[in-house]
Amino acid sequence: MNELEEKLIMVLYECNQHKKMINNAYEHLKTFLPLDKDKYTHFSLEQVGFIDQFLFRFSKLQDTMGEKLFGTMLFLLGEDFSKKPFIDMLNRLEKLELLNRQEWIDLRTTRNNVAHEYSFNVDELVDSLNDIFQVKDKLLFFYATFYAYCKEKFEFIKNSEVLK
Description:
0% strand, 8 helices, elongated
């Protein structure tokens, strides 16, 4: 196995860990969703911790996919996007039917809105949190699509002990 193949395995492993933690946090919060101001202001520190965990892991999964997974996978397919704009990579991934470019951009916007929303306006914060909880499945769907694609295209992924 070469260095780039090992890198892809490690990136997928990292994404799997983020996915597990997203799902764990969501399991602890789902009975409270959708949030409202009253629920949010009465959360325990532990419940707020699960929100933080969810937000952190959602951001990390999206970042890891965008910064590591997309480029590494494409490079292994013989396509180098290292010196091209990110939008070109998204366009290529859309042509491969791995994602919808606009949906990916919208996910990023939703994530950025909540990342900057620790304001004094609890209503805006709650709205942003509800937005990101609603798009969780979309991000996880994109990741599942990439993971399945990598397993289909790369024998070393199927045989990886790290990813079992």
